[in-house]
Amino acid sequence: MLYDRRYFEDQEQQFLAPYAIRSRGSRGRRYPEALDPFRTAFQRDRDRIVHSKAFRRLKHKTQVFVIFEGDHFRTRLTHTLEVTQIARHMGRMMGLNEDLVETIALAHDLGHTPFGHAGEDMLDELLHDIGGFEHNEQSKRVVELLENKYPHFPGLNLSIEVLEGLMKHHTPFDHDERIAAEEIVFPSLEAQVVNLADQLAYVSHDLDDGIASGILNMDDLVTHVDLWREAQLVTERFTTNLNPAQTRFSNVRYLINKMVNEGVQFSERTRINRGVEVLEDVFACPDRIVSFSPELEARIARLQSFLNERFYQDYRVLKMTINGKRLIRELYNAFVNNVEMLPSQEYEKVLLGDEPRRIVADYIALMTDNYVTSEHGRLIPTQSF
Ligand code: MG
Prior knowledge:
Blueprint: H1 5-15, H2 41-50, H3 53-57, H4 76-93, H5 98-107, H6 116-126, H7 135-146, H8 160-167, H9 189-212, H10 218-224, H11 226-238, H12 244-273, H13 279-284, H14 294-312, H15 315-337, H16 344-351, H17 356-365, H18 369-379
Bound molecules: magnesium ion (MG).
């Protein structure tokens, strides 16, 4: 026998927690389509994301380090895969819909610009008077509008539950002051799990990359970051004669495990305390259910401020972010001043009356670091700070 969509839907019915989202109960797609005989709605969405152009380009987009700095640092793609793996694990522990978690996680950074947050900040500044630029909103724009391979609809026509999961994907790192705290309606637990996994993944892998690059020093971390000190004590208690790379790996692994396990346990207590028993309770709950305890959150915040001061503000990182911003600004100006240089598909949108600056930002946001660099070299040969 073949295991088909109905079988998987029955499995979901039987085995997922009552507050999980079920694909059989999906509110559908903007442009109605016949159901796939073998895949659930969310499995199909996941496949559309992995086969998208924006997803492939994540490989050549910066996380913190510009990719030419070294082969082993995280890129936006490996970050996405780490978030997905952690989120699936957490979602599974909580009885949630793992396919939906995976789908939201794989798509969560599709709207990220080249050169990491530096590129996002630059485009936001350039578009300030026409609504700015924000990578979560852009991820949604990519899947709803910018991917174009289907004849009957723009974008990927994903299920509403996936789009909602993307729309409300906010982390403290995003600190977008345009989103007032009371405006945030908490999304499905599946989307909340992706948020927490994102925060957990970037903190731990930036720490890892920061040490591997030589910018962060493990002795400083022991002195200034109590989470790291705890990890170090555990590592020393169970192992001896580790070289520095093994110590780093052991400590980072400890921290990921701690954040995952304590995060899931605290979230489960919150769920019970808030009386969340069925799916409707999730949406009616005025607070976030999936989170770290306030105590752990405060300790992670101290680690984050250490990373801000010692890593993101280090001259070796700043020099890349400042240069990335310059390349993006100059390329943006070149295209805005000469819209006829845009590829015909983009230029057509300008002719049809779309805001040319938004079209240029969409075009640049989808570029990889390498492409921005080479296109800049072709179009703007002289250095002009
Ligand atoms: Mg992310």
